[in-house]
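Quick one: structure tokens for this chain, please?
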Amino acid sequence: MSKTESEITPIINRLEAMVKDQSRQEVQVRNFDLYGLNLARVSFDRRTNIFTIKEFRDNHVFKFDNIDLVAIDIYEILRDLKLTF
């Protein structure tokens, strides 16, 4: 990814795909990985419109009703790992 490309746009695109999915599944799930490490799992419950993030490094769980806050949290999780290398 070049320095002029947004790093958060691909995250938002994946989250929006979860919201727009037309399958009959009530809960959509996506994993967010970096360097082959599964860092977080995001689920979207279409009944409640709530995103749940399970962060694997610190074993935290967060719930959001705002897609932007979810994207920021995922970005920070990925960025924290990048900064350790």
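The chain has a mean pLDDT of 93.
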